[in-house]
Fold these 4 entries.
Entry 1:
Amino acid sequence: MTGPEILDISRDAILTLLKVASPMMIVGLVVGVAISLLQALTQIQEQTLAFVPKILLMFLALVLMLPFMSDALGAYMARVAARIAAGG
């Protein structure tokens, strides 16, 4: 396996990682900013107020986005398996 092939596989892996992780990270970011804004406006500094909604909404996003995530990972595995089967 040559250097450019390794770079192609690595680039594909990083892009797949970003596709799989992005929905969860975006939901966590949006919920965190919204809760922080709410806490700043109301001056309520309760830590569980930020933690519980973020966990619940991230779990909901995981359940909703799981088919997309599994398809992306399956497609990546198929591409890697095809390269292995092709001998490089």
Note: The mean pLDDT is 91.
Entry 2:
Amino acid sequence: MTLSANDLIFRALLALVVLAPLPLGANRPAAWSALALIAGILLALWSIRTLIGAGTPPPRLAPLARVALPLLLVLVWGGVQASALVPADWRHPLWAEAASALPGPVVGHLSLDPARSLDGVMKLLSYGVIFGLACVLGRNRARARLGLRVVAWSATAYAIYGLCMFFAGWERLLWLEKTDYLGDLTATFVNRNAFGAYAGLGLLCCLALVLSHLRRPARGGMRHHAERLVLGGLPYALGGFLLTMALLFSHSRGALLATACAVLVLILALGTARVLSWRIASAALLVIGIGGATLSLTSDQVTLERLLDQTELSGDRGQLLRLGGEMASDASAGGFGIGAFAPAFRLYRDASLPRPVIYDFAHNIYLEAIIELGLPAALLLGLSLTMVLTSCALGLRRRRRDQIYPALALAAASLLLVHGLADFSISMPAIAATLALLLGLGFAQSRSTRPATATDEEGDAEAAHGVG
């Protein structure tokens, strides 16, 4: 089979996303810079290919442009925050105090840390590029199927690595010694909550692939359907089992609860889309619930003990949320700068947090967005995401096939949005990039392909039903 230029670009995009967790969740400057650079190169290659594509109609970009506009405004605002050209009364007062205390010239900014803000703009832009490429290339059904399978298997591979390290008792992150979260399964991530969220995303992908095989195809008898279900669904069921085990041994109660909510969203979405009958959807939910509860009770007690422990809400986490609320109130107009939560938090930290812990994140993504961006820009960012999710929700009913992708996009977003109430897993570049890819595929497959372009129709003759 000859691969087109778009096929090669899409496969490179998949490789970028699934390899992102390898260097500590890409949460290091070199890793997230490489992620942004490669995403930019892929966008340039796709743009050149589209411009010189003789006789190939360009893809329809109007729906993507409507979603991209609020995000572009947020990126522009992030650049303004990092700029030294803003009016003097826009600059944070701390810069004036620094100018009076230091001998050399001090250039003021709206952001408390312009370098962090530029990094924040770069990361957010790279996620937008991944989403956009997934949108335009994921209109092709064969590519969308490939993307879902690759994410499922790569997440399973990370889970297998983590389980091997966990049961062997090797407290290492690749070639590095672990210094935090000893006794927790984190695979290639530093933070157990981040890996728990990533394992949850992989579990959703495997579950979506399993459930898609429950839909009986239009052609073929029961024997053909049974063979398709066993051969097509069983490998992903095994992957889902391994990911569930890895999630439990991460001991992340937030990721576990958020994943449970996301599984419910996925099954309800598939029922709404008529991919599953409500009878099968109810049975699947019952089986998954009983299986998950059994694994939780028999595999490891640490996560259950942490679920029952409510002292953290009245301890450091409660004080962190209180201080975050004060910061959000003070920064509601223009923010302290995208990516600049950590230096801003040092101005507010008090004796209620005596432990020598550095807080780089607010442990609540909604508060953190307002603190860093200000309320108007945070609402624009939320508007862009809401438009994507609304399109996915509408696609559940207006599409007659491939509703598995918008359903998965809704479930993946719900996982990280629920988890974001108490943690910051979406701030990990590898997780944000994975979500961007899944949202892009869901958005692409939530819209009708009629009338379709030549690009949209590549490979559409295959697999008229399901994604198996």
Note: Confidence is low (pLDDT under 50) at residues 451-468.
Entry 3:
Amino acid sequence: MPDPIPLTWNEALSGVTGSISLAAWIFLLVPQLVENYQQGSAEGISLTFLAIWLVGDITNLAGAVWAGLVPTVIALAVYFCIADAILIGQCLYYNSLNRRREEKAEAKSMRATKRGNSMTDIRDDNLGLPGSRRRTSSGTSGHRHPHGDRAASVATLDRITEEPSRSRAALKNTISVVLIFAVGAAGWAIAWKTGAWRPTPVGGEDGGEPTPLGASILGYASAVCYLGARIPQIVKNQRERSCDGLSLLFFVLSLIGNATYGAGILFHSVQRDYFLTNLPWLIGSLGTMVEDAIIFVQFSAFGEKEEKEGVADGSAVE
């Protein structure tokens, strides 16, 4: 029986960061699922983004099966596909539900408008007395100031409650990130102690069978899909100048997952052959992190735009 490979600092860091990446990927979609449920809407997230991501996960699964990768990798790829399908199904459900509600509300509004026009015609015919319009105008103007004061009070209350709400959200996200790191590190420690995880010698896979060309093509295709999936979301955010309905934690976990994934590869080895073999995945992770950074900038610039517009509109109401 060969001697066990000694655990070096590099191998330990590679194992820990890889395990943290795995924990981030497992819980990645949960924040957005919760956000959609709380909002009762999925209008904030781009379905094109999710569809391309699903294609990436499907090609990743097909490539893993074709290449005969370890069962844990295949199981994780299956989990990703199922999680994507659940999120897409939830989005389609809320979009369909809200569309039907809007159609019913629009039809009801049109019926009310027609009835209102009929009643206005009757009043104009029967109550067209001298000075009647002047009294109506005076009555309306009499209500303007109290309504404006009420809107101003609401705006002040919003400003008072806005900061604690932000602080709670930041605290919740911070705790979630700390837990992801803790779960990942603890998972690696347990796997190492039980022998489920062992250090891998650099270049240890070189003597095995080469990866089938088709599996490699599917792997590259999945990387391209992951890299391009966020572009529709970025465009949507920029076009609407809003990130309302998106979960910030969703993209934070994505950033953590990609950063620790790349770190796990580099901690294992920076030898030329190993580095070049993993270069496409490193580029994909780096590119995705850049796109996530763009979305973070959009959160900072547009995230609360709708709330600000709501306050502005309320203060200007008659």
Note: Residues 132-194 form the longest helix (63 residues).
Entry 4:
Amino acid sequence: MDAAQDHFTFTVGKLDAGMAILLGERAHLIEFPSVLLPPGATTGSIVNIAVHQNLAEEKRRDAEFWSLQDQIMDEFGKKGPEPPELQLRHVTQTSVTLEWPPLQLATAKLRSLVLYRNGERLAPIPSPLTNTSSKLSALALDTEYTFQLVLRTTAGTFPSSILRVRTHTMDNTSGISVCFGTMHDEVLLENAKMALRDMKAKWSDKIQIDTTHFVCTTEKSRSNSPIAPAAEYQRAEQLSIPIVQPHWIFACHTERKLVSIAQYGLGATLPPPASIRTQSQSLPAPSSAAAPPPPPAHPHSDSEGSNSDSDGSDSEAEADVGVPSTVHEKRMSRPGTMNREFKFPTPVSSPVVGEHPANPVVRVVTPSNIEVPPPPVPGDKEGAGKGLSRPSPPRSASGRSEDGDDVGDTEEISLN
């Protein structure tokens, strides 16, 4: 092989399976595709091989390669997905409405868009490519919440900044968002808008995602079509938006707080707005509860009650004694019932001499005034006959004692 020349001389040594073994003059051995050999070359043929560098083709290929790299960089490397910008649209006492601009995904594919509340994952946002708002209800009153959107794509995860929101108190009426329906009274409509403006609330003619109440005086449209209600009224019913009369706005404006809608539904009979405003102002201030009247004094407050105990049990006995007999008969005439306040009257003594017949003095006998004889001692015959039998009170021929009580027939029984 002559290195000074622009070609090299080889001898074909062997042809096998599409490959040729070429032998150089200095025992160089190379494998060469047989398809590149001149036609008719066989084993033992001598061939010359020339090798040249194509610089122009190298430049062309390099330029084509780097042009492709620039296109990839411009399309996929310079612009990527952007984190969503979470914003507050509306807040009330129990709900929060959030919104964000359309998602910027560049060339990445969307995987999910999830909303987090206080660090807890909520349900994914439906139709995230077209939906740019969300309303969260059933929140606590006057409570702070944190919200965050997390965008997941094929190019990575992109969270938004944390948004802090505090729900309103009951006296904050700026969260009212009203949609007006059919209002035949233009003066009433203008007064309602003035009240909303004074409360820093807002209104619209179309139902939006942050609409809190639908206000109208009739469900029909202005054409009074008897076929179907107005379109906005039907939509309010489908979205479960409370439907009230404009008097509810005046009540909130008068009370300076969010009032209940229970008395202001459509169809309810209400006074004119002016009377509603003055009604709360004319209400009297709550005063302290009046003390209950003292119980009537017992007609007998003389020294006869000096034997009563300190717990007042004897005073109750005196009150029961003074109850007419007809009351006791009514209490006892009801079969199957029991009056828990009923008490048996205690025995009374004979009237005091000199008392007025219209107001007799009642002497109450307490258990402490009754003398009970001691029990007999076993084996004592003398004591056995002492205090064992109480003499019966003297009675008349009719079987009544001197006190007037019907004691019936009595009989003495000996214990010996």
Note: The domain at 177-281 is CATH 3.40.50.10190 (Rossmann fold).
